[in-house]
Amino acid sequence: MIVLGIETSCDETAAAIVRDDRTILADVVLSQLDEHQPYGGVVPEIAARAHLDHIDRLVGEALERSGIGFDAIDAIAATGGPGLIGGVIVGVMTGKAIAAVTGKPFIAVNHLEGHALTARLTDGLEFPYLLLLVSGGHCQLLAVEGVGRYTRLGATIDDAAGEAFDKVAKMLALGYPGGPAVQKAASQGDAHRFPLPRPLKGKPHCDFSFSGLKNAVRLLIAAQGDSITMQDRCDIAAAFQLAVADSIADRTTRAIRLFADSHPGADTLVVSGGVAANAKLRETLSATAAANGFHLVAPPLGLCTDNGAMIAWAGLERFRLGLTDSLDFAPRPRWPLDPDAIKLRGAGVKA
Ligand code: KG4
Ligand code: ZN
């Protein structure tokens, strides 16, 4: 069984082809970094136009690299949401058009399900496992119990972790995208020179918050005044990165305990999403998992950030279960994986 996957929900235009034996036949990703760099963040209208300019070529390239034609493909999957709606529309329309012309089934994939199932593609994991999804748009802990079966244990009540990295990078004038820039600066810094808060540490639930930490960083930068040096910036970056890692580790420890209670025998923590690229976070999570009798599975970096292979794979998992969508599927800007989860209240709730 072979599935084509299309991803266009944020600032990566991607197409990939995967086979049910977990082989990635092709995985083409075009990042729009250069287009958004002058604005210091993703501009939705620019993103949508860039997806439109490149998606056809990328699908062609994926077919060429895998050495197959549309006739060898069993189904076409595209991210149906959640995400920037202009981009999602481009991907969904492309997927539907290919499905209509070739007569193959169409599958609308929840972008978050793509991240959630990636570890089954890369590591062949069995259900259930605990997932920490940390990206620019999402920060949540989910019990992954099966395809389409997720229980949200916690989520951010304000910013996503990646968003906080991006904003702190901007405040420190470290450049865009923020995560890698903060990590680089932090590697030259002393994480213990400046004390920063650990949001929600010790709370009995598993939710996250990063806006207070971000504000503490803002005040810290202001306190340095105009004479702030590059070393000050590196020290602040290191302190911030450590605070995020500590805070995520504390929330994840809570979730591991809850998850282990309700899923006896399960012992795997998966981390996915762009922030999973952070070396300090990976190191901290690996220790957190071990301290609780769990082990950490972190997909390769290229499959943690947005890509087409995760959409093709999630599409394949759905297709295997007979879950396809009709061509009148409407793109969704919001699409929670666990619609029954309690609605969170907060400044900018994303979940
Ligand atoms: O999953 P992703 O590619 O796109 C979303 O769906 O959001 O994640 C992008 C996010 C950005 O906020 C970026 O700054 C962050 O992941 N990121 C990092 C690192 N690399 C990327 N954050 C911290 N450390 C990194 N090394
Ligand atoms: Zn993503």
The CATH H-level superfamily of the largest domain is ATPase, nucleotide binding domain
CATH class of the largest domain: Alpha Beta
Number of strands: 10
Mean pLDDT: 95
Uncertain spans, ≥5 residues at pLDDT below 50?
Answer: none
Q: How would the global form be characterised?
A: globular
Q: Give the neighbour order of strands across the main sheet.
A: 3-2-1-4-5
Distance from N terminus to C terminus (CA atoms, Å) equals 33 Å
The secondary structure category is alpha/beta
Examine the secondary-structure arrangement and name the CATH architecture of the largest domain: 2-Layer Sandwich
Question: Which fold name corresponds to the CATH topology of the largest domain?
Answer: Nucleotidyltransferase, domain 5
Q: Which small molecules are bound?
A: 5'-O-[(R)-(carboxyoxy)(hydroxy)phosphoryl]adenosine, zinc ion
Q: Could you give a short account of the major beta sheet? A: 5 strands, mixed
Number of domains: 2
Binned strand content: 15-25%
Q: What's the total helix number? A: 11
Helix/strand order? EEEHHEHEHEEEHHHHEHEHH
The radius of gyration computed from the alpha-carbon positions, rounded to a whole number of angstroms, is 20 Å
Percent helix range: 40-55%
